[in-house]
Amino acid sequence: STCCTLSELLERLRGVAGSRAGGLSSVGFIDHGTPGEFCLLDGLCVNGVALSENKELRQFFVSVSELVAKEGGRIDLLACDLAASEEGKKLVAMLEALRPTTSMPEVCVI
Questions:
Q1: CA distance 69 to 66
Q2: Are the C-beta atoms of residues 35 and 84 closer than 8 Å to each other?
Q3: Is this prediction's pTM over 0.85?
Q4: Is the CB of residue 78 less than 8 Å from the CB of residue 29?
Q5: Which of the 8 DSSP states describes residue 2?
C-alpha cells in the first residue's frame, strides 16, 4: 500500500531499518522529476522553496539521514533532470546540509 504523509513514510523506513540507527546502507527516492524538483509523496514536491519553508520536510530528511549508515551510506534521488539546473544543484546542496554531521550519508542524484 502507499503512504500519504511524511510521518507514515518515515515510520515505514524506521521499520525496515530496525532498532539501530544507521541500519540501512541506502535509501532511494524515485520520481520522474524535473529540473530542480522531485515529488516525494502525492502532492508534496521537494524543491528549494519547499525545503526552506517546510520544517517537517527538513526534519524528515534529517531523520532519514540518521537511518542510513554513516560509513558508505547514501540517500539516492532517482529523478530525471533534478540536478540539470542551478536550482537543482542548490536543492542537492541544501539536502546535504541537513545531514547532522559531515560523516553522515551522502546525497546522490542518479
A1: 8
A2: yes
A3: yes
A4: yes
A5: -
| Tens digit of each residue's pLDDT, the chain (110 residues) | 566 899 999 999 999 998 777 889 999 999 999 999 999 998 899 999 999 999 999 999 999 998 988 888 889 999 999 999 999 999 999 998 887 766 556 777 76
Cell matching residue 109: 542524484
Q: Which three cell numbers stand for residue 60?
A: 524528515
Nearest to 34 by CA among 76, 82, 89, 78: 82
- Give the DSSP letter string of 26-77: EEEEEE--BTTBEEEETTEEE-HHHHHH-HHHHHHHHHHHHHB-TTT-EEEE
